[in-house]
Task: inverse folding
């Protein structure tokens, strides 16, 4: 058994979820090779070679891979795939885009977004946005698996010295072309990975009132979320939507403000470590998943909450 | 230009799903079913492109049991011209769906295939990318904006870091994100009109595709229940609990 793990990077740095994927892959086999497809990406290959869990880094350095396009990536990966029992990457937008293209070319039924490794061929994965968990066994000769990054701790990134081997590029396809990337330049953490999320629902009553949420989020260095009801009402754009049809989040602290707790919202946040609900309706379903519920008018509670936070000497970031 | 849109019939997103007692799956009998939400975005986008004069025909397709016809019919009611239902019983994995779609694409010769980025039942997020691989077409996943050009599409994609814009040659596969558009509701006259639009029925086996699952589903379980929490009396108490008990701030 040996694993080919596809690294995500920007030609300078390894993206953090790669380390979570390495950690999951290590639970399947110790024979772990990591593929770096990049252009002028020596620092990336070097950095991955320092992960103690990695046995070998295969570095394919070619201008074809200056930007990440699944069409180009998959050709190179297919050429290497025959020597491996597993092909693995993270189940974020990078891996979700890439892995099915590889799996189909290998005629493999992919296992997406696993949260637990049971054995080399059996995995647990959430379905219905985490409202159920399926244990599945892959019967294909090569197993194509994507890893839910937040379910595995990142692997250590220093102390190792794996061999770096140069590899041959795959075919160039002219099917697609990268044009530009607009990275959201925000001091605020990204919703999917933030340690703290503060979300508002229909109870906010207007988009303007979301400034109360923003103030608390600023204080806690939190991402801002919203329920579908708040998005549908036009209070906030739907990139903030938490829920089955939005983002699934698992922060250390989730604060739901003026959110009743519709099923589809709960599906997106109920795995959070600590949940706080602030709602004036004491019967709201959100209280059934909240560790700490505060039955109060949010327009009184939020300013007071900020005031109390300001009194603290230190706040975890 | 012709656009094929794949739609899936799933349990409605407002339904609290229940795991079968024997752990063999999810209860679907007598449960409200609807179109997979991002598939609604896919249909909407195709219809908008047709309305702008850049497409001539929108064909809706679904793979599944007989009742998936309702999902195709709904797509017809919001503007698709005709429908195709490929009948297959039981679980059809994304790999098999993409092989079925490949056959249909070879026959229908669309310029574009749209579908939602992910189905909200199995949450696989595979079919579009797999179809693109099988056809050797480019793929634009998680689309939040589509601009139709002469022989290509410029697609803005939602990625972890923000937005990415790529250009894909036509023919292409696009998987749609929720931010792409606001799906319209079907008006009553259009629902009536949709009843007259044709839906072609084909058996998956007649296409030569084996839909038997490759992956064994060993068991399905409910997630661990959260332990009951407490109600706090004041904001002060809440902050103290978060600081000293939960230690998260």
Result:
């Amino acid at each position: 058994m040996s694993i080919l793990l596809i690294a995500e990077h920007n030609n300078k740095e390894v993206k953090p979820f790669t380390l979570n994927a390495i950690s999951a892959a290590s639970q399947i086999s110790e024979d772990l090779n990591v593929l770096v497809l990049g252009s002028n990406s020596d620092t990336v290959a070097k950095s991955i070679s320092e992960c103690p869990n990695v046995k070998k880094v295969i570095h394919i350095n070619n201008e074809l891979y200056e930007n990440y396009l699944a069409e180009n990536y998959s050709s190179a990966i297919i050429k290497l795939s025959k020597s491996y029992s597993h092909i693995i990457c993270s189940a974020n937008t990078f891996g979700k885009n890439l892995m099915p293209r590889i799996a189909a070319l290998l005629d493999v039924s992919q296992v997406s977004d696993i949260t637990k490794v049971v054995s080399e061929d059996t995995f647990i994965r959430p379905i219905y946005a985490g409202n159920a968990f399926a244990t599945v066994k892959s019967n294909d000769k090569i197993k194509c698996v994507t890893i839910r990054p937040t379910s595995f701790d990142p692997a250590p990134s220093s102390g190792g010295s794996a061999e770096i081997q140069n590899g041959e590029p795959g075919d160039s396809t002219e099917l697609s072309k990268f044009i530009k990337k607009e990275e959201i330049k925000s001091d605020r953490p990204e919703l999917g990975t933030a340690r703290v999320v503060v979300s508002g629902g229909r109870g906010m009553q207007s988009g303007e009132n979301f400034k109360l949420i923003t103030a608390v989020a600023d204080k806690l260095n939190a991402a801002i979320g919203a329920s579908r009801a708040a998005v549908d009402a036009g209070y906030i754009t739907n990139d903030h939507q938490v829920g089955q049809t939005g983002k699934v989040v698992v922060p250390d602290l989730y604060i739901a403000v003026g959110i009743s707790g519709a099923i589809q919202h709960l599906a997106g946040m109920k795995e959070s470590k600590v949940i706080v609900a602030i709602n004036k309706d004491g019967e709201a379903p959100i209280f059934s998943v909240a560790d700490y519920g505060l039955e109060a008018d949010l327009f009184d509670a939020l300013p007071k909450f900020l005031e109390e936070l300001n009194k603290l000497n230190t706040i975890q970031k | 230009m012709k656009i094929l849109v794949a739609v899936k019939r799933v349990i409605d997103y407002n339904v609290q799903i229940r795991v079968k007692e024997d752990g063999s799956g999810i209860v679907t009998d007598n449960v409200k079913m609807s179109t997979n939400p991002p598939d609604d975005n896919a249909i909407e986008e195709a219809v908008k492109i047709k309305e702008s004069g850049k497409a001539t025909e929108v064909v809706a397709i679904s793979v599944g049991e007989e009742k998936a016809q309702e999902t195709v019919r709904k797509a017809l009611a919001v503007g698709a011209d005709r429908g195709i239902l490929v009948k297959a019983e039981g679980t059809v994995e994304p790999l098999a769906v993409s092989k079925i779609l490949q056959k249909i694409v070879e026959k229908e010769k669309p310029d574009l295939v749209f579908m939602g980025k992910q189905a909200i039942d199995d949450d696989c997020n595979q079919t579009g990318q797999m179809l693109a691989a099988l056809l050797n077409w480019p793929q634009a996943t998680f689309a939040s904006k589509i601009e139709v050009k002469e022989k290509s599409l410029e697609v803005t994609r939602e990625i972890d870091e923000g937005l990415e814009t790529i250009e894909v040659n036509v023919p292409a596969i696009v998987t749609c994100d929720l931010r792409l558009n606001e799906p319209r509701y079907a008006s009553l006259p259009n629902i009536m009109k949709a009843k007259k639009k044709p839906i072609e029925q084909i058996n998956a086996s007649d296409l030569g595709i084996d839909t038997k699952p490759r992956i064994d589903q060993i068991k399905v379980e409910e997630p661990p229940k959260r332990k009951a929490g407490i109600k706090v009396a004041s904001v002060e108490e809440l902050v103290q609990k978060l600081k000293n008990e939960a230690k998260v701030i």
In short: Chain B touches chain A through 81 residues (CB under 8 Å). Residues 39 and 198 of chain B are 20 Å apart (CA to CA).
